[in-house]
Design brief:
The complex is a heterodimer. In chain A, 73% of the residues lie in helices and 0% in strands. By secondary structure, chain A is mainly alpha-helical. Chain A has two domains: 11-115, no CATH class; 151-194. In chain A, helix 1 (11-27) packs parallel to helix 5, helix 3 packs antiparallel against helix 4 (71-84) and helix 4 packs antiparallel against helix 5 (87-118). By secondary structure, chain B is an all-alpha fold. Chain B has helices at residues 2-11, 17-29, 34-77, 81-106, 116-132, 137-155. The radius of gyration of chain B is 19 Å and the shape is globular. The two termini of chain B are 33 Å apart. The chains are: A mainly alpha, B mainly alpha. Chains A and B meet through helix 1, helix 3, helix 4, helix 5 and helix 6 of A and helix 1, helix 2, helix 3, helix 4 and helix 5 of B.
Chain lengths: 194, 158
């Protein structure tokens, strides 16, 4: 593993980082993960604030951990901070990147949602909401598929697919809490059974 | 997202499946992380700005602390085979959870004015494009989404 870069982050550098993330936020239609390649170009290639391993492990951990996967942005900020000092700088990095990625998009979303709700009886608004219905269901199914097929060989990974199918059936048909199944999956994986 | 659906719709009954699907389509098309958008919109609708902030803080704080802890631990155990295995198992369970959510939400489409055949005709290509061909999401929303909206607009009588 490459050694982590040692950084001196000045206030201007932090401001630069914040402005970039404010900009990413406005662009992040379809989720911030779609902008990951652009973040890689900026943070790793251009600024050398992170190395390759730090970048890719940030995304892997955020995908695996519970919670919205936008948190990979927090981990990128965390690692930049760690490279430039200690835990305090790392927490400051989290604050900068998360504020940047959330502030514009959330504001925009609240304003437009408010407008849409007040005009919810407009034919165009109803058409938009109803017309997007099947697309949204298909997109959710797609996310499931992309996650399930992340394992490289389908022939060798049939047990993982079986686990996915069983989980899907159980959660569809019963009210078992998801965390129990997550724990079961972790245990099965720990002992190499899937 | 799947957890949000379970909590908001099934446990708390704060919104119906129909409403969830509608809100989700806004959250999806706006920039920003869609779960965060959805929760913030919901908080803002019910309680104004404090509700929006509370929803966002509630959604992000604990996962944020968790993910930072995981990052600290991971740095030490990244190459441990048991840890890699456990992450694989958890990934498969998460995928199952998302499939279950898609199945449940699809039952709300029965009430859709487009009708089930049109819903299938829009949903299946969308799934193929995004899941199998890995096309950018934005093209799907602008293409198939626009077709869906136009068809719905024609079906809905003023």
């Amino acid at each position: 593993m490459m050694a982590a870069p040692i950084l001196v982050m000045r206030w201007l550098d932090w401001l630069n980082l914040l402005v970039h993330y404010l900009y990413y936020s406005v662009l992040s239609v379809g989720g911030a993960i779609a902008l990951a390649s652009e973040m890689h170009r900026y943070l790793v290639v251009q600024q050398h604030w992170l190395n390759e391993a730090q970048f890719s492990s940030s995304i892997a951990i955020a995908q695996a951990a519970p919670g919205p996967n936008i948190l990979f942005v927090a981990l990128l900020g965390w690692n930049i901070g760690l490279n430039s000092g200690g835990i305090a700088a790392a927490l400051f990095g989290v604050l900068v990147t998360m504020t940047g990625i959330l502030l514009p998009s959330t504001t925009l979303c609240c304003i437009s949602a408010h407008w849409l709700h007040r005009n919810r009886d407009l034919r165009a608004v109803r058409a938009f909401k109803q017309g997007m219905g099947p697309i949204v269901v298909a997109l959710i199914g797609s996310i499931g598929w992309i996650l399930a097929s992340a394992h490289s060989e389908p022939a060798a990974d049939w047990r993982l697919w079986l686990l996915t199918a069983a989980t899907g059936l159980i959660l569809w048909r019963s009210k078992v809490h998801f965390l129990w199944l997550l724990a079961a999956g972790a245990i099965l994986g720990w002992y190499g059974m899937v | 997202m799947a957890v949000a659906q379970r909590q908001l719709v099934e446990r708390k009954r704060w919104m119906t499946r129909q409403e969830f699907l509608e809100e989700w389509s806004i959250a999806q098309i706006m920039p920003g992380p869609n779960v965060v958008n959805l929760s913030t919109m919901f908080g803002a609708r019910r309680f104004g700005l404090p509700g929006a902030l509370a929803a966002m803080a509630g959604l992000l704080t604990i996962p944020l602390v968790l993910v930072l802890l995981v990052a600290l631990v991971y740095a030490r155990f990244a190459s441990h085979p048991h840890v890699i295995g456990a992450l694989r198992g958890m990934g498969a369970v998460v995928a199952g959870l998302i499939f279950a959510t898609a199945i449940k939400l699809s039952s709300a489409l029965k009430a859709n004015p487009l009708g089930i055949p049109v819903c299938i005709a829009l949903g299946v290509p969308c799934f193929i494009g995004v899941a199998l061909l890995r096309w950018p999401l934005t093209y799907m929303l602008l293409g198939l989404g626009a077709v869906g909206c136009l068809l719905a607009y024609r079906k809905l009588q003023p």
